[in-house]
Each structure stands twice: as structure tokens, then as C-alpha cells.
Amino acid sequence: MTAYAELTAFLRETEALAYVAERLGWDQETIMPRGAAAQRAEEIAALEAVLHARRTDPRLEDWLARAEATTEAEARVLDLAGRSYNRASRIPARLATELARLTSLSQGIWAEARAAEDPAHFLPTLAEVVALKREEAACLSEGDLYDALLDDYEPGATHRQLGAMFDRMRPRLVALREKVLGTERQPKPVGHVFPEAAQLRIARICATAFGYDWTCGRLDNSVHPFTSGSGRDVRITTRVSESDPFNCLYSTIHEVGHACYEQGIDPDYAFTPLGRGVSMGVHESQSRIYENQLGRSAAFTGFLFQRMVEAFGDFGVKDAEAFHACVNRVTPGHIRTEADELHYNLHIMMRFDLERALIAGKMEVGDLEEAWNTRFEADFGVKVAQPSQGFLQDVHWSVGLFGYFPTYSLGNVYAGCLNKAMRAEVEGIDEALAAGSARPATEWLRERLQRHGGLRPPRETIALACGFEPSEEPLLDYLDSKFGAIYGV
Fold first, then answer.
1. What percent of the chain has pLDDT over 90?
2. Measuring CA to CA, which of 80, 124, 284, 391 is 20 to 30 A from 272?
3. pLDDT tens-digit profile of 169-204?
4. Distance of CA 166 to CAs 173, 341, 458, 459, 474, Å?
């Protein structure tokens, strides 16, 4: 065997074990009995020890030195494998194992604290997580600690680049929000009871409309919606509130965007570094364009309105136009995953600033709740009444995902670019959406972006798909146009 063949055979086994670890995480957040949490933490820690040993195996360095690439894909495999080896080699096995054990336990503790509105139950564990993430960042850092963690989710991005992008976005977002909230044309929220079973039936209709392959996936409930897996086993979750059907339906469509990216990657890339989405920013571009530019369009909400009427009868919304306004209602709510498109990025900007302060040691975990509540009231004009509306609402920090949050807004920016390019090239998108099919749009996305997996760096992936360099302007122009029309401003 050549060095390249030996390397990829080894990587294939490592990727397969990583999929097993991911499946344990899926089980933990969906159907695992509560009493199994401590045992599951040990199982995940043991598997992480095996994975870390493989990712730092000295043979990798030898294979990488001797392997020769003959194609673009092979060159990219070597590049990504080298990057993974270099990063993993900087992290002690003890730290990798302890992080896996602690974050497995922490997720369950967070869920209990969130349900009980009891921050004190969670804060000591969060302090341990932050301490370990600071230690990990110090092992990886060649400069800024936060950038070292960010690089796991958006390779090549820095907090300065993202901060500058947020500074450019904020004035237009805030100005549009003030116009929208200042007009008399304010859609009313739905006021009805929407039984869980019927919501989940419509959620499955939506997932099918957006191309989710049910033969390689499933839909379950979880505290916080997520997607798990790649290739031929990609699972999604949602959550249900019987007073708010949009939570379930649009969480499902959002996760279908992630899932279709993973299901759409070229099968030849399976079990290689190319066989997953290239970054979380690019991943979020898929979930956000599915959810917002497509799922919240007038065309698709017209289709969805009819399904809602069939399932629930008269639920207090008079027609498809009023339903479209209701789905896109702008309100300064507390919950990020339920936020409208104008407020969503402001949620992310707040989290970005808070988690940078935590990792830099400029703020301690004990000060987080007060800092969150103060910042939220300043940005949104609303007080936080309970912890589940505030810093306990998101799962990310409990499982150590520091550096993940800004990729949501980067995904929004990328989605704006993709939507602009797609609408310029593809005919019949809205006609198909109105009939309950996103196929013209999703086929373009699969061909232009999804099938390539990790073949190219994130920003290059978007630029090649769109035909132009990405920027925040297409997103902001889309928001101005859409909400200007809905609110008459």
C-alpha cells in the first residue's frame, strides 16, 4: 500500500469510531434513560480516549510526510488530516478525555437546571467546563485564546473579522427594527392550542418538502433541536410547544437544512475528512436558507397555511397573507431559536461578546447571569424574567461549544449570498414552494455546495457556489426588502 492508502485506511476507521461517539450523544439527548447519565459519561470518555490516541498516532506524521496527492480531493484530504493531527497533538490525552466526560455530564445538569429555573445547580459545572476550555485554548493558541476555539468551527476566521462584520451589520439591523416596530401594521401572534401529534405530522411534511431522506434519517424530540450524523445516517430532532407551532415546524426545517447538507455530500467522500460539512458557518448557511429565505417565504407559508387549516381548523389567522406576516412577526423575544430574522443576529452578537469575555478571563461564570440580563435589556428593551429565558436557554456552553455561536450569523450572511445567486439563476422556485416542494432550490444547493463537503475552505466554498465573494450586503438587502413589504416601511 502507498502511504496515502495507509493513511486513508486509518482515517476511515477513525471516522467510523467518531460516528459511533456521535450516535452515543444523539441517544443521550433523545431516548437515554435519565439514570444512565454517569455511565454514559464514562462510555463517551473511554471512546474519546481511543479517538484521541488515534488522532495523535505517530504513524500519521510519517504517512503525511510520505503521502503524495494526485487529485484536488487527495490534496485536500492531506491538508485536513495534517491540520487535525497538529491540533490533536497539542491537546494532552488527559484533557481530551476529561472534556468528553465533563461535557457529557454537564449537558444533563444544564437540562435539569433549565427545567427547574435553578442556575445554582448548573453554575459550578459550567465553571469547570470553562476552565477546561481555557486550558484547551491555551494548548492550541498561537495568539488569541478565543480564536483557537473558533478555529474548530470556522477554520481561518478570527474574532476581529467577525466583530468587524457585526459592527457593519448592527446599524442597519437596528434601524430596520425601529422602523418595523414603529409602524401600526403589527401582526398578532397565534392564540390557539396546537396538539403535539398534529404538529409533528406537519413537521414531517415540511421535512419531506425540503428533501430529507427518511430512509437514512429519523425525527425525534429533544430539549434543544440538533442534527447528528453524516452520509447514510443523519438524524434530526425538534421540540414542541402546544401554544407555538412555529417552534416545532421551523426548528424541523432548520435541522433539515443541516441534514440535507450531510446527506448530499458525494458518497465517495464518506469516512474521509471531506465527508462532512466544511465548517459550521457553511453548515448554518444551509439550515438558515432552508428555514428563512425558503421556509418563511410567502410561497411556502401559503402551502403551510393550508396544512395548518387541515390539521387545526380555524386557528385565528384569516388567510395566507396574514399567516405569512404572522410567521415573520418581529418581536423582541427572549429565545434565540424562536427569534425573527431581524433580532436573531442581535442574539448572536450578545453571545459572541459574552463568551469571548469568559474565555479571556475578563468575566467569571458567577457573573454571567447578571451580565446576560443587563446586556439583553440594553439590546432588546425587555427584562429577563427567568433563567430559561436567559443564559440557561442554549445548550452550547454546557457542552463546551465556545466559538460556535458566531457561525450562526456567518451562516445567515452566507445564506443571503446564496439566495441572491440562486434566485438569479433558478426559475420556478416560488411556484414549487407554493406546491409544497423546495426541489428547484435544494437541487441547486446540492449541486453548487452540498455535494462538495469539505473539498474546499469555507469562504471559497461559498464564493464558488455564488460566483462572487461573500459579504453581509445581500443579507441586509434581503431583510430590508422582505420586512419593508410585510410592514409597509
1. 98
2. 284
3. 999 999 999 999 999 999 989 989 999 999 999 999
4. 10, 15, 19, 17, 15
**Distances 343 to 7, 31, 133, 346 between C-alpha atoms, Å:** 46, 33, 29, 5
Cell of 306: 393550508
Residues 253 and 42 sit within 8 Å (Cβ to Cβ)? no
The residues of the chain that CATH labels 1.10.1370.30 are 159-487
pLDDT tens for each residue of 377-409:
999 999 999 999 999 999 999 999 999 999 999
What count of other Cβ atoms lies within 10 Å of the Cβ of residue 263?
21
Report, as residue numbers or ranges, the catalytic residues: 255
- What the block records as the C-alpha cell of 265 is 455530500
Pairing between strand 233-238 and 227-230? antiparallel
Side-chain half-sphere exposure of 414, counting CA atoms within 13 A? 29
CA distance 192 to 323: 14
Angle at 397 (CA atoms; ends 33, 415), nearest 5 degrees: 105
Annotated ligand binding at 284? The verdict is yes
C-alpha distances (whole Å) from 322 to each of 189, 399, 482 are: 11, 40, 14
The fold of the 159-487 domain, in CATH, is Neurolysin; domain 3 (1.10.1370)
pTM of this prediction exceeds 0.90: yes
Is 396 annotated as belonging to a binding site? no
258 is in an annotated binding site: yes
